[in-house]
Amino acid sequence: MSQTYLKRILTSHVYDVARETALEIAPGLSARTRCTVLLKREDSQPVFSFKLRGAYNKMAGLGRAELKRGVIAASAGNHAQGVALAAARLDCKAVIVMPVTTPEVKIDAVRNFGGEHVEIVLVGESYSDAKAHADKLAAARKLVFVHPFDDPDVIAGQGTIGMEILRQHPGPIEAIFAAIGGGGLISGIAAYVKAVRPEIRVIGVQAADSDAMAQSIAAGRRVRLKDVGLFCDGTAVKQVGKETFRLCRELVDEIVLVDTDAVCAAIKDVFEDTRSILEPAGALAVAGMKAWAAANQVRGKTLVAVACGANMNFDRLRFVAERAEVGEAREAVFAVSIPEQRGSFRLFCDALEGHNITEFNYRMAGAEKAHLFVGVQVTGHRDRSAIARNLRAQGFATLDLSQDELAKQHLRHMIGGRSAAEGNELLYRFEFPERPGALLRFLSVMNPEWNISLFHYRNEGADFGRILVGIQVPDGDMRQFRAFLAKLGYPYCDESANPAYHLFLRNGDTAS
Fold it and tell me: Which of 247, 414, 441, 509 has its CA 20 to 30 A from that of 82?
């Protein structure tokens, strides 16, 4: 199979618009991993991502009549920009169908790359809605659909990245890491690498909350996810392609899953080495490479990570900076209960053994004790565990919240908010689409008899917002409440039993 793709890749038409990107050493990452880390800088393409390669290769292979009729694509991100630029270079018409929720900055980017060659159609609230409408338009107007990943020509275009890596570094390579969304990027790279140098490991990286390929390979069939995480929006695919699944199942050696904090840390790592800022999906390969090297205790090897995109909204950097320290294991977050008596705070500080405090929130919980929410600089996971042991040895009840999404995202901004009238309160985290009317939809679907007892939201400059909501629901309404969640359709997580919530925001202390 890889031999068939080898010919496609070698004869791909990508360099009319795409450039051969640099393969450069990352000195900081190399020192930290004790390996030679090379970054394949696809973030430096004209559209700031690798997507241009596959889109152009597909479109350049069309006949004159097909180009005259035009092409169509459904995308809200990097693929749309690649199709737009390819259309301008090939002098053909391109219809780009995007959800109405698409940020204006991305719409403007597509318009700027495509100019008069692009027609933008805004339909629906999700990629699925846009794709369904694009299929109808393609049939009605006889347009060629340019798939973002599940097309042999698109896969072959992305495969030129693998060809460049092996040409630029003919020496030993232990592993090449690439992000997986629908699977087009890693399928192309793996097809070339396994045909030419099969000893090199090809390792995919997915966000833990968008792992459609990993689940599909484990199940032996394509799995469709009900929900996907939105932080790594460039790889937030509910179902991988038929062809990409076939290729990944045969050629990809393994898949590594990483969380949001690890991605934020990887964005910071790349910035420190290159002064460039990757988008979350663009940093997945780096995050996965770090996790894989640590887990396998790899030393002295050459590792390649594909930095596949840099279309980052500036406003998201606030969130990335906040979470990068935890992702690097350089900050730990604790909830600590101390007695309300003289000397307690001094004992608490002594237990930290000189570590710098990065955040400190204090709330008296009554006449006998107080609760602290504290961030501490650490040197790694062992250091974090040692601090927790020291605190407990002093008799302080301690919760390590370093992996607690509720605490890191919301509670650190809300410490001290308690209500005496919180009966029947349920606590849920939601991901709302960032668009007018999202909150109104929430309120209109919710039973008006239920009271909102808590609400916290922070704009992070993303396509979605993270909201924490307390809702007072009578015990007899739980069936109706579950129906409300299903009808609303927003991703959610029940945090009602979270111990940090009981420590800081709820009366009737249940945590020890």
Answer: 247
